[in-house]
Amino acid sequence: MKGIEGMRWGEAQLLEKGIENARFDADLLLAGVLDVARDRLYLDGDRILSEQEETDYRRAIMRRAEHEPLQYILKRQEFMGLSFYVDERVLIPRADSEILVEKWLELVKQGERQGRGRSIKVADLCTGSGALAISMAYYYPEVKMVGTDLSLDALEVARQNALRLGVSVQWRQGDFVAPLQGELWDFIITNPPYVSLEEYNQCAPEIFSEPAMAFLGGQDGLDFYRRLAAEVGPLLNQQGKLLMEIGWNQAEAVCGIFQKKGYETQVFPDLAGRDRVILAR
């Protein structure tokens, strides 16, 4: 099979199974098998695939045809300009979450201009692949960063990513804020499970390949925020701040939860203009 024939065959298989962006996915899967950039596929379209390459490509296409996420097949996902290893043990980082890192960096730089020191202490709850914690440590190396997760499997992936990207993060296993007790933090950040049960059941098939515990936030999706509002206060220092990702329609409800506990809140949109991050202090 020639490379160009493989791309056409792969696209046809994925279209038949109702996969969106079938051509794009087929191209990336072949590029992954051949370990080349996507544009090389078209420059070398007459290249004959070896027997092993063809076998691997067909296997990858069949996996994608069953709605397995492309990122799990390729074992990588881009986030904040960095390449992260991902597999079935962790949630796939989304571009929407980059605003959380960008807003944090903006707040840190603002603190520097106001005379606060460069060494700050930050905890990332529900770290998963470590995308948030690692990105923050990568772009602001002075930070003392801790990433926590209930899942030991997720922390193994996070450690692997930190090692690959050459950043220093301390990883702690435990439920909710338990790994943070007894310390005071400048920032606590989190992309928590915030999908309601009803919304989850209506998700695209690919979602069900990812860890359900990383999505489900209770009947209405707000359970994690209620726990945070009730328990996180004693963990923040006098100037401490909490930065949280939210669902696009949750800003009013989440702000209300925190305001009832005496917090001031501020909402920030993502690049599409949808409410995405809440700052509470």
From TrEMBL:
Residues annotated as binding S-adenosyl-L-methionine: D149, F176, N191
Domain Methyltransferase small: 119-208
SUPFAM superfamilies: S-adenosyl-L-methionine-dependent methyltransferases
GO biological-process terms attached to the record: methylation
Alphabetical list of Pfam families matching this protein: MTS, PrmC_N
Gene3D superfamilies membership: DNA helicase RuvA subunit, C-terminal domain, Vaccinia Virus protein VP39
Residues involved in substrate binding: N191, P192, P193, Y194
Annotated keywords: Methyltransferase, S-adenosyl-L-methionine, Transferase
PROSITE patterns: N6_MTASE (PS00092)
NCBIfam families in the record: hemK_fam (TIGR00536), RF_mod_PrmC (TIGR03534)
Name assigned to this protein: Release factor glutamine methyltransferase
Encoding gene per record: prmC
